[in-house]
Write a structure and sequence with these properties.
alpha/beta; 5-stranded parallel beta sheet; 47% helix; Rossmann fold
Length: 350
Amino acid sequence: MAIYDLERCSIFLVEDNSYVRNILADMLRYLKFGTVTTAEDGADAIEYLKTLRHTAGGFDFIVSDLVMSPINGLLLLRWVRTSKESPNRFMPFIMLSGAADAEYVNAARDLGVTEFLAKPFSATSVYRKMLEVIDRPRQFVTTQSYFGPDRRRKRQTGYGGTDRRTNSDADVTVVYSADKVVKATKPTDVWYFRLQNALKEKVGGLGATGGGELPVQLLADAEKQLERAALDFIDWAANHIAQLARACKDAQEEPPRRAKLFEEINLLAHELRGQGGTFGYPLISSFAKMLYDCTGEGCRTEDNDVEVVKAHIDSMRAVLREKVAGDGGDVGRALHAALKQAIERHTAVQ
């Protein structure tokens, strides 16, 4: 099996959370990416990518968070795949998000994402997505409504499901160059782009075939870097929980602003949901996911709902105060039970 060298590769990291952005960038450098460029959000990323329009192909990888403002990862992906100003509409695009719900995954898929990586992440999970892009690139497809990697991944021989490809090569136009991408003019028009796997040759050498891997020590070093970063997680999480507490207090005191404040609470919960498991505190992710779910669009914002928010905040504070890592054992189960009882108590009187 070939040993891949990422030194000649460039990667563009788009993440609006500076704490996570810096950690991810450091981790990618430990994996020996030659160039790691970062952007603070989708708008910043688009402006930077525009400057590469007349260069040789943009980046080898884009890794982008999904939930960002003012331009999120889905809008950035759409721009990369469809804009005439995009430096390379074929760039591998890995979406990274703590909101790995079906609607987000499907939306990214339908906009042409290459891979979807759910938070919490690890060096190993990032590495595996990179290998998938390098070793098993999918042909690109153009129709009237879609441009991106083939949404039907290759299946094993003998697959008997109903979601089988109906077009054969005789029904489509097969293209072997990325020089010109045109939109289909008729619903029946389909193009397949089968391009040379230049990325594999870049990391594995000319004529590289078969699968490959990174040196084991690189992956171990990247995982250790994440472990060191976890030492700062408690301070980061405590700051976010303090912001949650302020928003909750304001919601108690200013009922007319509750809808807006619950939106803020929902976004803060999303951030905590994505990071806790990455840095050894899955209970934070679990409680934040529960808070995220109960403060989403269309949620109730009555007095008892504010108390439910407060109960989640108290539970997360207890995790940090007691440094309850992992599943927490008996302490973790007790915290889960206490939160469940608080939710039931407050929702029972609505």
